[in-house]
């Protein structure tokens, strides 16, 4: 039995669902990242998990041709509840109206978990970005069952999860399956969230982003809202350890510091993200504006059946403001002393030390800024190479 190395494992959890002997499960490691646990007594050494792991055995490449669009849901209510332009909600609504099933990430107490829904009224909890890794146990198996039952299925998740899904599906008939991945800057340690849980002040997460005062193409409108034990909602705003940890690269999951599923290495039918840096669709900013990049022809008949408004753009229109589309490559951060120190401080409950190490003006922060400047040069040359592979530049 061989699984991806700890530094590369995305915790997509595809291996767990591939094992019919229940030899694999997930837990949170001492640093606050999901890990895969292995029970040797249950393993029969069949090797299926190794063949399913998208890191060890990447599925066959599936992108035909990528085409970027500015996109938004014309259904204002759903768009308002979504992180950016509501591209996901428009596609999900069409699938649900056609009696299909939709899988997306939802908040469950202090955790994020992928959920299966069949009714349009169950869509709202799936909307919006949750900046914490979602639990996927059982989701892949459930999708296979839905496909076997002839259902139309939409899955939306991180690019590594879509890769996991494609790997689990193997030779399964995927004619009825549509997949969306999001542009992704990576996920971070869950230790700050676990601290909030242990404080006993809250019963769970409410949301990670705030659109009450509109979306904007520059700067982030993030705000962590928590449900208090007395039933009220507390807005912890942008400056708290959960969101500071998410915004900083220092404590990203190791696999996210060198993501294998960016650029052309995607397995979805389309990718969605925030249209950061846009200045052509300003009249749409307040309600939220998405980027939608299609990767094949089969997605277009589905898009035609949705409430989505799409306008073709070029890669140059968004790629400068959203390099996470093609680049999440900061492998040296894994070895930063400040990373080890911040994790140790968090484990000991010394949040102020961890927060200090993530501040841009601390010594560790200055070191990080220099690293990112050097990394920028590498990124720029990679971007030019990437754009050469694209038709709509
Ligand atoms: C961790 C994370 C990092 C991101 N980084 C970037 C970035 O760097 N640049 C960028 O442009 N966009 C990024 N996004 C995507 C962005 O936040 C929006 O999700 C995107 O713009 C789509 O918005 P929407 O309005 O169409 O859909 P929404 O309704 O906001 O969200 C759609 C779906 O996203 C999926 N999703 C949400 N949270 C999670 C999660 N934790 N795990 C798996 N799937 C999830 C769900 O299935 C959800 O239903 C990120 C999203 C996440 C979750
Ligand atoms: S080798 Fe087979 S039995 Fe063992 S963990 Fe992997 S899938 Fe399960
Ligand atoms: S299948 Fe996913 S969770 Fe399992 S070892 Fe590979 S990357 Fe890690
Ligand atoms: S950066 Fe890559 S590995 Fe990390 S969550 Fe995003 S898609 Fe998965």
Mind explaining what this structure looks like?
The chain has 393 residues and is α/β, with parallel strands linked by helices. It has a domain at 67-187 and 254-324. The chain contains 13 helices and 14 strands. It has a 9-stranded mixed beta sheet with strand order 6-5-4-7-8-12-13-3-14, with helices on both faces. Strands 9-10-11 form a 3-stranded antiparallel beta sheet, with no helix packed on it. Strands 1-2 form a two-stranded antiparallel ribbon. Helix 6 links the parallel strand 7 (153-158) and strand 8 (177-182). The longest helix has 26 residues, at 363-388. The protein starts with 13 loop residues before the first helix and ends in a 5-residue tail after the last helix. The mean pLDDT is 96. The structure holds flavin-adenine dinucleotide and iron/sulfur cluster (SF4) (3 copies). One iron/sulfur cluster is lined by residues 1, 18-19, 21, 23-24, 43-49. Flavin-adenine dinucleotide binds next to helix 4, strand 4, strand 7 and strand 12.
């Amino acid at each position: 039995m061989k699984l991806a190395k700890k530094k590369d494992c995305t915790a997509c959890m595809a291996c767990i669902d591939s094992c019919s002997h229940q030899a694999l499960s997930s837990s949170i490691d001492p640093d606050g990242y999901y890990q895969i646990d292995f029970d040797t007594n249950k393993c029969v050494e069949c090797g299926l998990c190794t063949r399913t792991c998208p890191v060890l055995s990447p599925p066959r490449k599936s992108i035909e041709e990528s085409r970027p669009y500015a996109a938004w849901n014309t259904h204002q209510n759903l768009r308002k509840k979504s992180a950016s332009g509501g591209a996901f909600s428009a596609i999900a609504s069409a699938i649900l109206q056609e009696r299909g099933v939709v899988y997306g990430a939802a908040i469950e107490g202090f955790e994020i978990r992928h959920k299966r829904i069949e009714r349009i009224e169950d869509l709202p909890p799936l909307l919006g970005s949750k900046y914490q890794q979602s639990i996927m146990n059982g989701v892949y198996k459930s999708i296979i069952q839905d496909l076997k039952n002839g259902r139309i299925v939409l899955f939306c998740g991180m690019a590594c999860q879509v890769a996991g899904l494609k790997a689990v599906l193997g030779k399964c008939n995927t004619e009825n399956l549509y997949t969306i991945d999001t542009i992704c800057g990576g996920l971070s340690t869950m230790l700050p969230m676990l601290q909030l849980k242990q404080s006993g002040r809250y019963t769970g997460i409410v949301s990670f982003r705030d659109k009450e005062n509109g979306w904007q193409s520059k700067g982030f409108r993030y705000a962590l809202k928590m449900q208090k034990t007395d039933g009220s909602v507390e807005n912890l705003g942008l400056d708290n350890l959960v969101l500071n940890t998410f915004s900083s690269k220092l404590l990203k999951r190791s696999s996210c510091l060198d993501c294998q599923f960016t650029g052309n290495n995607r397995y979805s039918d389309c990718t969605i993200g925030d249209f950061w840096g846009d200045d052509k669709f300003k009249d749409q900013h307040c309600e939220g504006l998405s980027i939608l990049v299609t990767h094949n022809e089969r997605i277009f008949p589905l898009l035609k059946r949705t409430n989505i408004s799409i306008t073709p753009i070029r890669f140059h229109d968004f790629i400068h403001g959203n390099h996470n589309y093609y680049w999440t490559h900061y492998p040296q951060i894994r070895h930063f002393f400040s990373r080890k120190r911040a994790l140790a401080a968090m484990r000991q409950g010394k949040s102020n030390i961890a927060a200090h190490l993530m501040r841009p003006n601390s010594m560790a922060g200055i070191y990080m800024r220099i690293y990112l400047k050097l990394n920028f040069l590498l990124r720029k040359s990679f971007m030019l190479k990437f754009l050469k592979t694209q038709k709509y530049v």
